[in-house]
From TrEMBL:
Protein's membrane topology: Multi-pass membrane protein
Subcellular location: Membrane
Molecular function terms from GO: metal ion transmembrane transporter activity
Pfam families in alphabetical order: Nramp
Annotated GO CC locations: membrane
Keyword line: Membrane, Transmembrane, Transmembrane helix
Segments passing through the bilayer: 12-41, 53-72, 93-118, 130-150, 157-180, 192-218, 239-260, 291-312, 333-351, 357-378, 398-419
Organism: Shewanella halifaxensis (strain HAW-EB4)
Name the record gives this protein: Manganese transporter
Amino acid sequence: MSNSDTPTLAKPLFNFGSFFGAMGPGLLMAAAAIGASHLVASTRAGAEFGWQLAWVILAVNLLKYPFFAAGARYTSATGENLLQGYLKQGRNYLLVFTALNTIAAIASTAGVAMLTAAMLTQFVPLPIDVLALLVLVSSLVILIFGHYALLDKMTKVIMLALTLTTLVAVALAFNAPAIVNPDFVPQSPWQWASIGFLVAMMGWMPAPIEVSAWNSLWLIEKQKLSPVTKQQALFDFNFGYLMTALLAIVFLALGTLVMYGSGEQFSASGAKFAGQLISLYSQVMGSESRYLIGAVAFLCIFSTTVTVIDGYSRTLNMGWQLLSKRQESERRLIAVMIAMSTLALTIILFLKGALLPLLEFVMILAFMTTVVFAWLNYKLMISTALLPADRYGSAMRVLSWLGLTYLVSFAALFIYWMLTK
């Protein structure tokens, strides 16, 4: 029999193993998103307004999609990160991004670190500021000694555990009898007093848009471990983004099914808020599951803190590196991580455990800066820095303009609300 007669096996059209191995940046983005915007904002939206904001959450995720997708699309097409793309557009573009990113980095790190410390108070009887210090130090140890490879593996396991636990809790909550306070009066989110909450919820839904730059840098780090094709990079991003949108609705459902109508509201205190959040799960899964749920929730928020420190530090380091025309330096990256964590801890010490006000401020800040980050990404994705085939087509351009219109409109409305309240 000749070689030409030898039967050959057709290659599968979709190799799940290779795609799962290539996944990582998209899941890291999902981990960063699920921390505060989902556990806090989505759950609180359901607890206070029921299902009324479900369509808003889905719409926000859709309208922000083109700006988040820019990270994976630009890097997979050019081999460069987004910040290099900003610099090609002009030095001032990168300067604006880096300046706004610096402010967001410190505030966001403080927010997620305090939320993680609040979860930890359910297990360790120490003040929240001491626990925040332990959380930040532990995160730095993981990042400095474990690098991207450890972060990649850790996130996949934690995301799977939290997703399964939350899906089980919501499934049980659908069958559990609702506890409605006889004096309960449903409130509409579409009133003037609720503008602040709506903007805060949309600010981190699914995450701050600068996360697209993290995704870009993480994709380059992933490519250092194993080759990642353009198709795999886009699949990884889309999978992670879809997961964040669906889980946002799942967390909204949990708040709606367990707390809506009960008359109970989330506390501004970090420790009390953490206890209330864990109780949402244990009410439907049984009191014996409290510690298991608490551990999973803590690990989820802790992974968010680690990814936030890593993502912001990488973008800040890269921005300053490109602006100053210096060589890449691992020591400088570590120094940025430590400096950012130190400043975040200072904010936590100043606020003395007031969790919800801090998170609301961070989310509002994210929404106000989102307009700038969204414009930067859109301008890059239609620029000549990309080949015509890699630029946004008509559908993505229309969706981008709808997204920009929504972002600018709500930002203007919020500014007016702040001036008149």
